[in-house]
Amino acid sequence: MTDHDAEAPMPQTPDQPVIHVIDDEAPLRRSLIFLLESAGWVAVGHESAESFLDAAPAIPATGGCLVLDVRMPGMSGLELQRRLAAQSATWPIVFITGHGDTEMAALALEAGAVSFLRKPFNDHVLLDAVERAVTTSRRPSCEHSMSNETSAAESSLCDASR
Predict the structure, then answer these.
(1) Entry pTM
(2) For 123-134, how does the pLDDT look when each residue is reduced to its tens digit (9 = 90+)?
C-alpha cells in the first residue's frame, strides 16, 4: 500500500496504470488503496488536493485516474478538477462524497468527471468506475466528455451507490 502523504515514494510502474486516491480521511484513504491494490491496481494516496499537486504526477502512458473526495479542508475536489482542467491535465476523475447532491454531481460530470459516487458505495461500483476511468485515460485524445448514453449510465451509478 502506497500512501504518498506518509512520505512514501511515488511508484515507478511505467507498465501499469496508477490510481491516485485523494481523501482527507486517512482510514478511508487506506481502505480504498487496499481495495484497489487487491483488485490488481497500483494505488497511491494523498491526504489533500494540495499534496497531490505538490507531487505533480504525470499521467502514465498506460493510463490512470483520480479517486477524489469532493469535500476536504483547503482545496475541494471540485476546485482541484478546475485547476487540472485549466492546466490541461488529462486525469479522469471518479468523485466520491458523503455530502453530495444532484447539482454537485451534475457540475462534476459536466466538467468531465467519469463518475460521481455517494458514500457509502459498493466496492464493485467503485472498481467499475475506476476501470472506465482508466479506459478513458488510455484514449489517444484523452477526451473525457461523455456521450448521452454514458451520462445516463453514470446517473444510474450515482443512484446505485447509495
Answers:
(1) 0.81
(2) 999 999 999 999
